Predict the 3D structure of the following.
Amino acid sequence: MFEQLINWFPEWARPFIMPMITIGIVLQVNLGVCSYLILLERKLSAWMQDRIGPNRVGPWGLLQPVADMLKLLLKEDVIPGHVNKFLYVLAPGISVFTTMLAFAVVPFGPVPRNLSATDGQFPYIIAPGVDLGLVFIFAVTSLAVYGIILGGWASNNKYSALGAMRASAQVVSYEIPLGMSVVGLALLTGSMSIEKILLHQVDAGILGWNIWFQPLACVIFFAAAMAEAQRLPFDLSECEQELVGGWHTEYSAMKWGLFFLGEYTHVITISFLTSILFFGGWHLPWIAEPDSQYLGSTLVKVLVLLTKSFAFIIVIQMLRWTIPRFRFDQLMGLAWKVLIPLATLNVVCVMIVKQFHLNEWWLLPMSAGLFLGAGLIGTQSSRPFARKTLEPVAEAHGHHAHAH
Amino acid sequence: MDWSKENGLLIIPLVLGCFAVCWLMPSTRQRPRILGGLAALAAILMMQAMLLPPAGDYVRSVLFFVFAAAAVISAGLMITDRNPVYAALWFALVTLAVCGLFLLNAAPFLSASTIIVYAGAIIVTFLFVIMLAQQSGTATSYDQQPIQPLMASVGGFILLGALLFTLQEWGHIDGTSTSEHAEPGQFIALPKEIEPNPLSQAPHDNPHEIGSLRVLGRSLFGDYLFSVEIAGTVLLIATIGAIAIAPRRSQGTL
């Protein structure tokens, strides 16, 4: 549909036209959506806490994001005198850059099969045909922690440094279950490309969605991704009660805003990935099938994907006021003692099914069994374990007193 | 004499680079840093003539020079920077630039996994430790002086020289003896006399397949299975050792 536009350009420029258009659309939509997601989050928080929420600017407070953005842009941008200026200014940029870059390989609509850069089809993805889309996303989002670390260190503030240190330990730990959780998907599909994983589910119908075979991986992926994005209940790096604002304590105005733009972009990416990897992407039975050709079917497919992603954004925002924040040792324990072993066992299950050519439906009871087993071990072993670890300490104190 | 004439093009930049790194190392005396910078620049420019890639795609060549220059210059700055935090950040830049080179050489998986492991985990851990030791703005005197700058740079450059000589002997990387046209998917064309590993089970007839995940997996877990298993065992031993060294909770630590 863009063929005439593309042919108007000289030949060497043609491969760049569609990506430019796509980047422009994604950037604009993302900025708009981020500001309204903040309003939605405030409204949802208010609703869950029995408050009214922002309602002064415009009807039902709908113009609040505009006012917020104007405020952020016009506010005085303070750079404290004691900071390391270069890194202080660089940090918010890294934060936004990495999270936006991760979105480059996330499809946001029905990606046409046999796509070429110059035939004028709208690609619905910024960088089509990346063979290692999943690995690319993990590589890029693992760099996002630099924004936090540098921001916290350059601020030259004890609270910021504490927040940055918590963030670095957390992100390094949670990368492992995040990566392990999708290995099963790669084995089932035979590819690391996000587009191929999507098409594989679409062709198999609703009973081919990965959630049926990998429910445990879905839970692990979602939890680890929220930890990577520093969202509540994993936001120990900025927890207001202990650390003022954590790593962004010394930031103000639009630099502070950029950190949050990065965080919300990360949340959007997580939601898209969860709905694409596990819930069939734009597929919905009878309405958005791969062979549905009615007028506006493409639009319907985009809307289906957006609705699924929106549902996950709502879930993430509701989790914020549902689960209290972890203690730091609980956070590390969750990653190393629960998520990583579970993800590894999940991969082993997929390998067993693939190796012995079992029916893929065996994975559903296997995942459920793993989940229940982990829960059983967790509830049954925690109390005696706590007593066992406490006793020697008391004994040691006793000996100490006796010696005196 | 012939030998020195033949290899002068390698020796002069090596000596110049060694001098530059020595000169730029942080020290108590004030030195004009510009002198070291100029020497380093001269060394890089002379070396660049040696490492000219075969004439290929214009965009590819430009990208190669951008990544290569970024890697070499960041590496120099990493060694000579006075502030350990900046040194760690230069290290991150070196990693990213080298990953760019991997991408150019059609090894996307190697590139992505290097970013995840090095830039995403190891350097973050470095930064973590450095930040624990040094707050920004506080003037600490330790860790700011190199211990043996001269010996270290001479040793490093002897190693680099040995590597370059070997590469020159082996791959004829003087820009003339490689084939004129780079294969698609490779940057520097493979020398003609090097055959693919005859024992390899991975398919190697299609040059576009080189570096793809499928071929990489076949190669790692087919041709090099023994090495992979040994590496895995070594890592497992290291993990067990770390757990054994860590103090027990009953001993009063967290």
Notes: Residues 398-404 of chain A have pLDDT under 50 and may be disordered. The longest helix of chain A spans residues 363-403. Chain A has two domains: 78-358, 364-404.
